[in-house]
Amino acid sequence: MSNKEEKPEDQNQSSWKEFFYNPRTGEFIGRTASSWALIILFYLVFYGFLAGMFSLTMWVMLQTLDDYTPKYRDRVSNPGLVIRPKYMDIVFNRTDPLNYRKYVQHLESFLQQYNDTEQEKNELCVAGKYFEQDEEPVKKACQFKRNFLRQCSGLSDTTFGYAEGKPCVLVKMNRIIGLKPKGGPYISCNQKTEGTLQILYFPSEGKFDKMYFPYYGKKAHPNYVQPLVAVKLLLGKENYDEEISIECKIEGTDLKNNDERDKFLGRVVFRVKVTE
Ligand SMILES: *[C@@H]1O[C@H](CO)[C@@H](O)[C@H](O)[C@H]1NC(C)=O
Ligand SMILES: *[C@@H]1O[C@H](CO)[C@@H](O)[C@H](O)[C@H]1NC(C)=O
Q1: Ligand 1: which atom is nearest the Cα of residue 118?
Q2: Angle at Cα 185 formed by Cα 248 and Cα 175, nearest 5°?
Q3: Which of 11, 68, 165, 261 has most Cβ atoms within 10 angstroms of its Cβ?
């Protein structure tokens, strides 16, 4: 009885061994060596072909790309606004130069590229017109001298108004290749907290001239500098020790400035608090 029962198990074990290697037929896991060789060869050729196809299409694609201009762009590009000095909270004691030094140093180093002597190497462009140079391989840049920022240039007042408690903040748009803002774009700032703050704009009316558009990209447009608008906050003694929230927006143009999801699209909010 027991012998009979063991028999199938024996067979089972030997069939498992035979599955791995069958000495009668010379098969290894169900296939002969030549069959395995053929299969391996097939997959080598198959994957080699796929890799070749991939490389070829990739190469062809890359041939169609241009180092100078991006091939695909958003349909409508909307720039974000950013400020310099690069702080969301500008808090300082106006009677203590060490206290506001970081803001002044930051503005000063940022404005190096707008150095009047540097900018004189750039073009004197026609105001109010886009500076289109689609044909030129290397694009020229329009002058933007720091003295356009007058009281906020750091030239006559080397503390940018921080010492008198009327600080300057620079507003700029992020660079977007090919952007040509319609109308007459300008920066407008408002106090978000209670009260109405007097604000001066440089250049006058906070305008961005069309001559600084379009921008052609880092490589094609090497000397390009973004236009700036300086905002001088005319805070008085009554505003000291108070945190004032200010929102600046791009106006007068087709660019978005009230997107619900992106609060930096065409606008920027920062806070200022002056003590003495
Ligand atoms: C900026 O301009 C001044 C003269 O106006 C010059 O002395 C200075 O070296 C310039 N700085 C740079 C970084 O070009
Ligand atoms: C501002 O700085 C001055 C001079 O260092 C100091 O006397 C004054 O107490 C400071 N004010 C505040 C609010 O820290």
Answers
A1: 14
A2: 80
A3: 165
